[in-house]
Amino acid sequence: MSDLKTRVAYLQGLSTGLDLGESKEGKLLRGIIEVLDDFAESVGGLAEGQEQLEDYLESIDEDLYQLEDEVFEKDAGHCECGDNYLEVDCPKCGESVCFESDILEDDDLVEVTCPNCDEVVFVNDDNSPQAATKQEMLMGRLGGHKEESVEEDI
C-alpha cells in the first residue's frame, strides 16, 4: 500500500510543479488528486484491518485445534461415557456409541443407532436368546471396564 501512497504523493508534487493556478482544469486536477489520496488512505486502512483479521483468525484456528485435541482425544482402553452409560462400538464405522444403562431394563423395544452412520448398534430385545448375553457383556463394561466388543457376539 505504501506504493499507492507514494504514487499519489508524486502526482501531488507534479501538479504543484506545473503551477496550474486557479483555472478550471487546475481545480479539477487538484480535486482528482485529493480523491486519489483519500482512496489510497482508505485502501491502506482496509489492508491493515485485513491483516489484523487474518492474524486473529489464525489464532482462533490454533486455539480451536488445541480444543479439539483436548475434547476429542480418545484413549483406546478407557470408556469416556461415564458410570451410568454403556459403550458399544459400531460394526459399520467403528465409532464408539454411548447410551444410558437404563435401556437394558426398559420394557419397550429400544434400538440404539450410531450417530455417525445410523447403523443399529444395540437392541434391548428380551425375547432373543442373545439378549441375555449382550446384557451380561454390557454390564461388565460399566464403570470404564472394557471387555470384548458386543458386535463380535451379535
The total beta strand count reads 4
Counted by DSSP, the helix tally is 3
**Cα distance spanning the termini:** 67 Å
Provide the structure class.
mainly alpha
| Low-confidence parts | 128-154
- The fraction of residues assigned to DSSP E strands is 5-15%
In spatial order, strands of the major sheet run 1-2
Shape: rod-shaped
Mean pLDDT: 76
Q: How many domains, in number, for the residues? A: 2
Note the run of SSEs as H and E: HHEEEEH
Radius of gyration: 35 Å
Helical fraction: 40-55%
Q: What's the story with the biggest beta sheet?
A: 2 strands, antiparallel
Structure explained in plain terms:
The protein has 154 residues and is mainly alpha-helical. It has two domains: 2-72; 85-152, no CATH class. Helices cover 50% and strands 11% of the residues. It is built from three helices and four strands, in the order ααββββα. It has helices spanning 2-18, 24-72, 130-140; strands spanning 85-89, 96-100, 111-113, 120-123. Strands 1-2 form a two-stranded antiparallel ribbon. Strands 3-4 form a two-stranded antiparallel sheet. A hairpin with a 6-residue loop joins strand 1 and strand 2. Helix 1 runs antiparallel to helix 2 (24-72). The two termini are 67 Å apart.
